[in-house]
Amino acid sequence: MTETFQFKLLATDGAARRGEVSMPRGTVRTPAFMPVGTVGTVKAMYLDQVRDLGADIILGNTYHLMLRPGAERVARLGGLHELIRWPWPILTDSGGFQVMSLSGLRKLDEKGVTFKSHVDGALHHMSPERSIEIQGLLDSDIQMQLDECVALPASPDEIERAMELSLRWAERCKTAFGDQPGKAMFGIVQGGDVARLRERSAQALAGLDLKGYAIGGLAVGEPQAVMLDMIATTVPHLPADRPRYLMGVGTPDDILKSVARGIDMFDCVMPTRSGRHGLAFTRRGRINLRNARHAEDMRPLDEESSCPAARDYSRAYLHHLVRANESLGGMLLTWNNLSYYQDLMAGIRKAIEEGRFADFAAETQETWARGDLAPL
After folding, report:
1. Is 217 within any annotated ligand binding site?
2. C-alpha angle 314-58-318 in degrees, rounded to nearest 5
3. Is 312 a catalytic residue?
4. 240-257: b (≥16 Cβ within 10 Å) or e
5. Is residue 93 annotated as part of the catalytic site, yes or no?
6. Is 355 part of any known ligand binding site?
7. Residue 104 scores a pLDDT above 70
8. What does pTM read for this prediction?
9. Is 94 within any annotated ligand binding site?
10. Of 59, 56, 58, 60, whose CA–CA distance to 27 is shortest?
11. What's the confidence (pLDDT) of residue 375?
12. How many CB atoms within 10 Å of residue 121?
């Protein structure tokens, strides 16, 4: 641990990077996957379990937490770490994406965005300064700038307008954040699927000399090839000595291919949401436990896994739980999925350290392709 926020690059293998993000509440081993704890809970999991699986950091959502229980209330209760019993690092997003995607009414201008809560219809105003204030009340360790995320496809003019607004908001967020020892504010690269706009955004943000940089506005429905092209376009314009965070990504395959292009940090609801809907991620690829072929299959999801959900419960039982809509089914599959994601990240880190990341990625993808019926 350290009293300051630091990023240390430990090894590289091609563009893939192995590093550590250190801060007073702990060290995050990168490449890292951050489980999403939207409203102060990683759905269907005890946070002790999440930690035991290997998570160094989790994500909280500013939009949801400001609506309930409220940022000021969280602060009065000792901050988010104290409230949820997670003493390790927390990253909070700015709330901007949820404002754009969830609110029933919104009006955006230079000052910020006014929106109607999806919970009770109350009107709220989110400015760059208010977003940083809320994240400070939550007491998160990494705070994100407020940005405007444009849904794709969109016109180049609309993408450029939102990108330039996000840059101006980044400057205001930096001023509002000030100097907070041991904490960091990350800027967010925007620019949609337009390469020149991604380059312009990354270069301008790099000029702000922030402690970390995120790539936003991807994994919003565009083809994977477009996402990877935008990552490859953006990364060369970001400082090599700062962490790089790809927001909202993604599938295990997305992660492998993004690490190969220099990304250090990821978050996504996919492992938890998929678990609640009967889908398991394993070394053998995806397994849909709703399928009837699992009804009498007494094999576990993965007999070699260190996770009891994957190793000790039969597919037949998991299938029964899912089909019966029992809560335990979602709990066990979420446990399995988060375990697989953390095991994947540990394997990636080890492979980079050993200079064999390309081989590791190829072997992993080959095992997925063979499927869950093929012997390992």
Report:
1. yes
2. 10
3. no
4. eebbbbbbbbbbbebbbb
5. yes
6. no
7. no
8. 0.96
9. yes
10. 56
11. 60
12. 10
